[in-house]
Structure formats: structure tokens, C-alpha cells
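Here is this case:
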Amino acid sequence: KNDEMKRRHEGALNSLESFVFEAKTKLETDEYKLAATPEEATAISDLCTKTSEWLDEEGFNANADLLEEKLGELKKLTYNVWARVKEHQERPEALAALNSAINGSTHFLLTIKNVSAQQMDNPEGRSLQKLKLIL
């Protein structure tokens, strides 16, 4: 039981220290600076500094629950900024997928429009003509 508590404490401590370092580092990059409002950047930076100081003074002796609580506060504060950055990073891929879908639909529509008049004389062709009118 003591080993389990010690592992949990060390894991929580490591997670919190890593997150503080990661958040400070990210806020120094242009991508994150642009995604954060000045108020958000200041609040995140201030909480990172406060948490880092707390870790140095008493955090190493804190229980895992308190360390996890501090990590949760940081994650909650950074969530919106991190989400904006992720959305910005994924946008080109989403636009490419949209363009691909539009191009596929355009190609499909052109193919249907180019069905010859001979094909319109059979039952399948009449169904295609009805579909063409709907589109």
C-alpha cells in the first residue's frame, strides 16, 4: 500500500512539473501566443509561476490528491487555448477533406449529366434522368 501511494505521489508530482514546464514553453511560441488572449496568457503564466513556487516550497510533500487537483486547475485554465491551437493545426487537413468531397461530388454530377441520350431510353436511364432533375 505504501509503495502504491508513493508511486501515485511520484506520478502526480511528475505530471504537474511536466505540465508547468510544457505550458510555459508553449506560451513562448508564436502559435500559442496568437491563440491566447493577453488575459489568458497572463493567467496561465501567473498560475504556472505560482504552481512552480508552490512545488519548490511545499509541493514535494503534498499528497497525490492535492497534486492532481493543482494539475486539474492548470489543465482547466489552458484548455481553451490548447483547443484553439489544435483546431488551427487541424484546419488544413479538414479543408483538404472538404475540397476532396466537393470535387468528388462535382465529378459525380458531371458524370450523370454526360449520360448519353441512348441511355435515357432504357428504364435505368430514366431513373438517372429523374436523379439529374432532382440535383
Summary: The chain is about 85% helix and 0% strand. Residues 64-113 form the longest helix (50 residues).
